[in-house]
Amino acid sequence: MDIAIQRKAQSFRLPVDLIDKLRRMAKRENRSLNNFVETALLDIAYHEPNDETLAAIKEAQEGKLQGTLDVSSVEAMYKSMGL
After folding, report:
1. Would you say 33 and 23 are in contact if contact means Cβ atoms under 8 Å apart?
2. CB-count exposure of residue 6 (10 Å: 0-12, 13-18, 19+)
């Protein structure tokens, strides 16, 4: 089953230095500017963090997550996280 995605041309005004930077980033990944920007926008629009992730981000930003995370093994990591 082939599903066609409808597209609509849209014009945006962006700073020249931003467009230049986006072009360089797209070139490094061998992608067109359009594809690079479309992918970035899709990621932003459809990958919003859930409530649990937002709570964890807030804890980290407020400095509530302190101590050392032991990543020597999965078990040690869980233990250092208090799990």
Report:
1. yes
2. exposed
Instruction: Give the Cα separation of 43 and 49 in Å (integer).
Output: 11
Q: Name every residue whose Cβ is closer than 8 Å to that of residue 42 and which is 6 or more positions away in sequence.
A: none
Q: What is the mean pLDDT of each run of 10 residues along the chain (83 residues)?
A: 83 96 98 96 91 87 76 85 77
CA distances from 8 to 32, 33, 51, 64 (A): 17, 16, 32, 45
pLDDT at 1: 58
26 with 35: CB under 8 angstroms? Answer: yes
Contact between 52 and 46 under an 8 Å Cβ cutoff? The reply is no
Is pTM, for the whole model, over 0.70?
no
